[in-house]
Amino acid sequence: MTQPQVSRTYWRGTWIRFREKVDFAQLEPVTVHAQDGAQVRGLYWTPKERRARVAVMAAHPRVDFGQHYAFPEFLRAGYACLGANLRSINNDVNCVHEQLLLDLGAYATWLRDEKGIEKIVWLGNSGGGSLGGFYQQQAVAAPAARLARTPAGRPVPLAAASLPAFDAMIISAAHTGQGLIMNDVIDPAVVDENDPLLTDPSLDLYDPRNGFRPPPQWSEYDEAFLARYRAAQVARVARIDATARGMIERQAAAESDRADPSFARLPFEQQRAILQRASFQPVMTVYRTMANPNYVDRRLDPSNRSYGCLLSERPDLMNYQLLGFGRLQTPDAWLSTWSGLSSNANLLKTAAAVAVPTALVNAGRDRDVYPEAHSKAIFRALAAEDKAYFDFPDRLHYFEPNDGEDPAQPVREQMGKVLPWLQERCPA
Domain locations in the chain? Predict the structure, then answer.
């Protein structure tokens, strides 16, 4: 079977790792328990020769940041570093952002209470940007004002949780939120969610009749098509939202039947049917989520990016592959994480609560995070008066090296600007 070309830098040798030896640091495995009882594990790195008073903390909804590529430079400068892996690591099928905040709160509390850390700096790389913004929004709110329920209506104990706020934030190559990404990448040409190959040609991004050109030629779409396309993307997300809520409502109805006093008087077979419906946990499959016009038309939100997307140089084929954004999830996870209409992890909204010093890093060759729609929009939305914008026009999403380049060079470039900024505000 012919396979599309999957991005070598992202999938075959991920660069979310140390680019050098860290024999100047020591490692401590960490296990903490969230407010709801979930157990999560991370990696805590500290300089060998000095006690750290400030910690840099990094996490992502599904990616392992235990050895984040920026940590060595922070450690060399005297900062502690915590790779705070979450309950959804490597599998976001049931990723509910409101629950992830409980994990972050447990880690931050551990840093403060167990390790004596005086200040915590959030490193929000990629999906960690919107995650950290959501956490900070809830952390600075009075407990009674915090969210009590997820978008699916499930209770979440944020009011009772310890959520120490961040003292500074670094937002690096971050999008505005996984849900907002989905709004931009979902293929609106899908006619039937149960028949993913059925296509509306008038909305097919990869149809030459709509402006698509053979890869790697850049395509050009007219404004009328793009307007119809973007509206249809949101409409598909809304339909999937409705499907997710319908699944949740059917389960809730069965739970109500189970709690009704008359349940005990029902015949066993009826009881069994109600219990099955109440216990049923559906998993949704969302096909074809690699169809952002920006992937193939560089006139849209211009940057130094190359053709394609973060995951592939052939998004027209990757659109049909297993790997992709939001392919499998529970209804709860869809609404909390992947729906741009329902998710609370929306950095354009939560940035209004980010008043601490914040540095934003833009990677100019990023193929899924764009300067206007993401980096500059986030920067404008930040409430912080003390904020800095660092642009690296020739660097990729995870600051991967170019062929033949020292793997640590892109990191040194980024940290050469970010580290002095942090040292002025939160000295190690």
Answer: 14-180+341-425, 182-329
Reading the block at residue 6, the tokens are: 């999957």
Look up tokens 């020591």; give the residue.
Answer: 26
Q: What is the pTM of this model?
A: 0.95
Q: Which fold has domain 14-180+341-425?
A: Rossmann fold (3.40.50)
Kindly state the tokens that stand for 130.
Answer: 């919107």
The span from the CA of 156 to the CA of 237, in Å, is: 24
Q: 313-369: per-residue pLDDT in tens? A: 999 999 999 888 999 999 999 999 999 999 999 999 999 999 999 999 999 999 999
Q: What is the token pair recorded at 108? A: 């931050």
